[in-house]
Amino acid sequence: MNDFQKFAALDTVALVDGRVVIIDQTKLPGRLETLRLRTQPEIWEAIKSLRVRGAPAIGVTAAFGLALAARDLADAGARDFSSALAEAAAYLASSRPTAVNLSWALKRLLARAGEQAGEAPGRIAEALQAEALAVAEEDVRVCRAIGRHGLSLLRDGDGLLTHCNAGRLAAIRYGTATAPVYVGLEAGRRFKVFADETRPLLQGARLTAYELSAAGVDVTLICDNMAATVLKKGLVQAVFVGCDRVAANGDTANKIGTLPLAIAARRYGVPVYVCAPTSTIDPDTPDGGRIVIEERPGSEITDQWYAEPMAPAGCRTFNPAFDVTDQELVSAFVTEYGPVRPPFAEGFARLFAAKARGEAFA
Fold first, then answer.
1. Is 249 within 8 Å of 327 (Cβ atoms)?
2. Cβ atoms within 10 A of the Cβ of 127, count?
3. Distance (Å, rounded) from C-alpha 55 to C-alpha 209?
4. I need a surface site. Which of 7, 97, 333, 350 has the fewest CB within 10 A?
């Protein structure tokens, strides 16, 4: 069995025998390796160092991590179980600030713990493990629904352009921005995908091109600064990207480089679709100016992929991990409930109302 076949059989994140098992994305595409994480520092480091990444996958990892913390606290006979659990959640939340799924998943588990208040810590730990598994199962269903809705916006044989990795490696299986491609494959439809390499961490080159190739998708890798030329030549009919946080007005934080891609797409009349689970839409953040943007070490620009430094010693760097795409550049958000078109604030309000009523997503 080669690595592509092994990869096809793995979920990005899983809970197995009391361990969080992840695909170590820092090793791809050269080696397919999994890590078995048990302690809170191990899980924190895996999120921080991008061993696991992508908003949905981070959320699931954090949920599993907090469930394991609850079990440890229960087994240790923690005197103030509730406070210790909240501290564990705050610690995991500090690993990366921008992706809202991280805090969303932790809040969901803390809310479940609150519902179980008064019960023995061991029973609460069991409930949190069940809730964490539900978060993972829901992610698969949500991403597949996004895939079905995204597929409705495409014709067989269309060219698509994507940025960073919002594929199965960013979630459990289908991913978000690539979900229409995978669901299309199941239906016998084929697309040609152009993948931005996505500087400086090369998630498009290392991850998106890897996973699409493994699935047999027609994928072409391009440098980020080639995207406008691909758009101008008419090689793609749609841009599909994921997101790490969507503000209430539709401003969207995604991997750095999404903003210039959206500007170029607007110039050449190509629609930009943001694939967004409702868990990534943050109604408490009014606009993109309020989104905290993570800044990462400059060494990712100057040293990480080179045998020798590719910049002079002491050169100042600016390395924001995300940019914010203005809502007017987004054609629609593709959610598990269907596409949401402008005006986005009103569309999101209807979306959350339907969710609050317990309506099933399609």
1. yes
2. 18
3. 19
4. 350
Rounded Cα–Cα distance for residues 93 and 71 (Å): 18
Burial class (CB in 10 A: 0-12, 13-18, 19+), 263: middle
Q: What is the Cα–Cα distance from 24 to 210, expressed in whole angstroms?
A: 14
pLDDT tens for each residue of 172-231: 989 999 999 999 999 999 999 999 999 999 999 999 999 999 999 999 999 999 999 999
Those residues whose C-beta lies under 8 Å from the C-beta of residue 93, and which sit 6 or more positions away, are 62, 102, 103, 106
pLDDT tens readout for residues 107-133: 999 999 999 988 999 999 999 999 999
d(CA 234, CA 78): 61
What are the CA-CA distances from residue 70 to residues 16, 28, 281 (Å)?
16, 32, 27
Question: Alpha-carbon distance 175 to 242, whole Å?
Answer: 9
DSSP for residue 349 = H
Distance CA 9, CA 52 (A): 17
323 in catalytic set: no
pLDDT digits (tens, 9 = 90+) for 265-291: 999 999 999 999 999 999 999 999 999
Q: Which of 244, 251, 282, 323 is catalytic?
A: 244
In the β-sheet with 238-241, what is the strand arrangement from edge to edge?
218-222, 192-196, 159-162, 238-241, 272-275, 332-335, 338-340
- Rounded distance between C-alpha atoms, residue 333 and residue 344, angstroms: 8
What's the CA gap between 332 and 338, in Å, rounded? 10
